[in-house]
Amino acid sequence: MAKACSLLLLLVFAVSVASVVGSHGSKLSPEYYKSTCPEALSIVEARVEAALNKEPRMGASLLRLHFHDCFVNGCDGSILLDDNPVFAGEKTAAPNNNSARGYDVVDDIKAELEKACPGVVSCADILAIAARDSTVVLGGPSWKVKLGRRDSTTASKNAARKFIPAPSFNLSALIINFHAQGLSLKDLVALSGAHTIGLARCTSFRARAYDDSNINPSFAKSLRRRCPRTGRDNVPRSLDLRTPKYFDNFYFRNLLKKKGLLHSDQELFNGASTDSLVKKYAANSSRFFKQFSKSMIKMGNIKPLTGNSGEIRTNCRKVN
């Protein structure tokens, strides 16, 4: 009887392990393509450098694609899928529509990788590598990108609306949003520092310019001149006016002066729990860089598809 019970427990354990392996597969690893596509990292790096030499703003766009991908059902390349008869993709969801960009650069990288190693490197991994390389090219930190993600076979416009944080969020909403992804307060502040590069549209900072009280008066006036109460919705403004093309800690220095462009930015320094972290990163760029790297690795590990889940898309815009 005891022997039978032991055998039963062993079988239950084996089934449990099999289900875990089947659903999650092997862990992500920086060495994932070492034997199957050894030139993968150099190919992505070269194409990212070329794109940023042509247009430095593209660095922020590629970094944002990875962020918006991971926050919607995990880092699975779903943001790259075009609409089709089966589902409405994430590209036209409010947080991405007429805003997310860089798809052509991803297509270019994928085409080069398919020539070198057909059917090996996933679109989700391209986003993760390109985000790191963009940060480095613009003067930011580097980190070892964990690889081995597979691509989703579906996308969700509704999930993109629900999970991508909005520029109107207050601190409580931001904390809840990041916590839902398994990210801490420290991750929230560090990852928000990506707003040291890139642009935002008038629609994203109009309410900040006209309605917020925790804003530098002269800064508010400059925003109002550029962004009227009505019209000119797509007029852009640099998220960091001091060094918009460099990845540094001026984002945090701006917050100390009440010059955060978005309402959600300034919420990080508004007399609450994140003030101390903002001060720390504003005073020491090395501390910011170190935590940003850790948080990017952590974010890149949100619900990846591995093992037999998903697929390796041949074309990042559509399912095989």
Your description of this structure?
The chain has 320 residues and is mainly α. Helix 9 packs across helix 10 (217-226). It starts with a helix and ends in a 21-residue tail after the last helix. A two-stranded antiparallel ribbon has the order 1-2. It has 14 helices and 2 strands. It is globular and about 55 Å long. Its main location: secreted. Its cofactor is heme b; Ca(2+). It is an enzyme of class 1 (oxidoreductase). InterPro entries: Haem_peroxidase (IPR002016), Haem_peroxidase_sf (IPR010255), Peroxidase_pln (IPR000823), Peroxidases_AS (IPR019794), Peroxidases_heam-ligand_BS (IPR019793), Secretory_peroxidase (IPR033905). It is found in: Secreted.
Task: Give short descriptive properties of this protein.
320 residues, mainly alpha, 14 helices, disordered N terminus, EC 1.11.1.7, Peroxidase_pln
Summarize the structure.
By secondary structure, this protein is mainly α. 50% of the residues lie in helices and 2% in strands.
Stretches where pLDDT falls below 50 for ≥5 residues?
Answer: 1-25
Main β-sheet, spatial strand arrangement: 1-2
| Element string (H = helix, E = strand) | HHHHHHHHEHHEHHHH
Any idea what the shape is?
Answer: globular
* Computed Rg: 21 Å
How confident is the prediction overall: mean pLDDT? 92
Overall structural class, as computed from helix and strand content, comes to: mainly alpha
| Count of discrete alpha- or pi-helical segments spanning 4 or more residues | 14
User: What percentage of amino acids are in beta strands?
Assistant: under 5%
How widely separated are the two ends? 51 Å
Number of DSSP-assigned strands: 2
Give the helix level as a range of percent: 40-55%
